[in-house]
Amino acid sequence: QISGIMLSYGILGALMARERFGKGQKVDVSHLGSMMWLGGNKYGIALLTGNNPGRQDRRSARNALWNAYKCQDDKWIAFSMNQSDRYWPDFCKAISRPDLLEDERYNNMEVRAENKVELIQLLDEIFIAKPREEWEKLMNETGSMIWERVQDVWDLPNDPQVIENNYLVDFEHPVLGDTKWLQTPVGFSATPVSTRKMAPELGEDTENILVDVLGYSWDDIAALQDEHVIL
User: Fold this and answer.
1) CA 36 from centre of chain
2) What is the CA angle 59-60-65, rounded to 5?
3) CA distances (Å), origin 39, targets 44, 61, 80, 87
């Protein structure tokens, strides 16, 4: 899917080039190249510095406010606050630990990084004491911090943003019956899209396309089937 998205960008770029310069061109995309681009900052910095970034262990993340924490109900909450000094006071207030503001081990970004393992262990103990919904309420009440719930697939149908943007639609599957399915994430104000049917079985729409769209006769269809051109 990522390579398909990148290909669509490439097609748009090629169409724009054709409009400007009057010449078409081949557009080539691979899954490997797409995934490398997706992780571009991480891989690019590694190549520049010569350091293998590896996989980050959340238990020793340099910035405790760029991490995820497990709550009492086995659900997770994630924080993405790169400017940790800016958000640290509100964060300490939300977790009811104002004493950490004066603690010399944690009162600025540099010392928090030096004591990262100990700090994350402490925060793990704090967050596991309350369910996620309670933490969300506290975060919203305290200040403008950057956080979000870590969702699993079963959370999506009830997510307010998913509902508001119609990212999941009610769908009648020919075999499974009533279910929900993913809507395209791209919105068009003048030509809205919709999910109407599942992808066809192999050859399912061949006859309709040949007859209704391309004007083939049923004798033509029979001849193509005899020659094994179509199913």
Assistant:
1) 16
2) 85
3) 8, 18, 17, 27
Number of domains in the chain: 4
pLDDT for 23-55, tens place per residue? 999 999 888 888 878 877 777 777 777 777 777
Considering the domain architecture, whether residues 62 and 133 belong to the same structural domain is answered as yes
Domain ranges, residue 105: 58-150
For the ranges 101-110, 137-146, 189-198, 222-231, the lowest mean pLDDT is seen at 189-198
Kindly give, in sequence order, each residue whose CB lies less than 8 Å from that of residue 87, ignoring residues fewer than 6 positions away: 65, 81, 143, 145, 146
pTM (global) more than 0.70: no
Judge if 139 and 205 occupy the same domain: no
